[in-house]
């Protein structure tokens, strides 16, 4: 008779969610570059994806009418692509204004001045000041660890730049913005996806169900 072999299922590594305190520790750290701090704040207030954050043009901004336009890249393959004209709240307007006032001449809201301008690196980008999605992610990880924001979490489970958007969605929910408002801002076709981003920021409480045990012996 063949022996039954029990295969132990490996626990999946899951990225932890950001906390506002944790993210602000990175934003306030002197080791975090200014352009990266702006990228965090822009993502948190606008709820846009990493790829859209780094490709957001200054020409999309209308400070006089207090609006900013964006066409989320991930939605452009939909039957009905999403195009947003966002009325800016205080936090979003502040970071957008800072980006616009930057002394570095760039068409992008999020930009930086590279320490070196190698020909092959410049050729690979739309503009010498632009930030690629992968570069933003890598620089975030460096800044997060340099700020010691999540030293209590194992390296493989520390939140990444991707989770900033999820924190923003949760914060909007905590401030009692309607779910439809948040879903529209995130460019989600279904409310279920928006809820997925918002979940996981609070510890699940044990809910006790009241029952009776009235057996007579």
Description of the molecule:
This protein has 217 residues and is mostly helical. It has one domain: Intergrase catalytic core (hpI Integrase, Chain A, Orthogonal Bundle), CATH 1.10.443. It has nine helices and three strands; from the N terminus they run αααβββαααααα. It has a three-stranded antiparallel beta sheet with strand order 1-2-3, with no helix packed on it. Helix 2 (34-46) packs antiparallel against helix 4, helix 2 crosses helix 7 (162-174) and helix 7 crosses helix 9. The chain is globular, with a radius of gyration of 22 Å. The N and C termini lie far apart (47 Å).
Summarize the SSE layout with pairings.
Layout: H1 20-28, H2 34-46, H3 50-54, E1 61-62, E2 67-70, E3 84-87, H4 90-101, H5 119-123, H6 133-146, H7 162-174, H8 179-186, H9 191-198
Helix pairs in contact: 1-2, 2-4, 2-7, 7-9
Estimate percent helicity: 40-55%
H/E series, N to C? HHHEEEHHHHHH
Sheet having the most strands: 3 strands, antiparallel
Distance N terminus to C terminus?
A: 47 Å
| Beta-strand residue fraction | under 5%
| Mean model confidence by pLDDT | 82
CATH fold field value:
hpI Integrase, Chain A
Radius of gyration of CA atoms, rounded to a whole number: 22 Å
Tally of structural domains = 1
**Structural class designation:** mainly alpha
Query: Going by CATH, what is the homologous superfamily?
Result: Intergrase catalytic core
Question: Spans with pLDDT under 50 lasting ≥5 residues?
Answer: 211-217
CATH architecture heading: Orthogonal Bundle
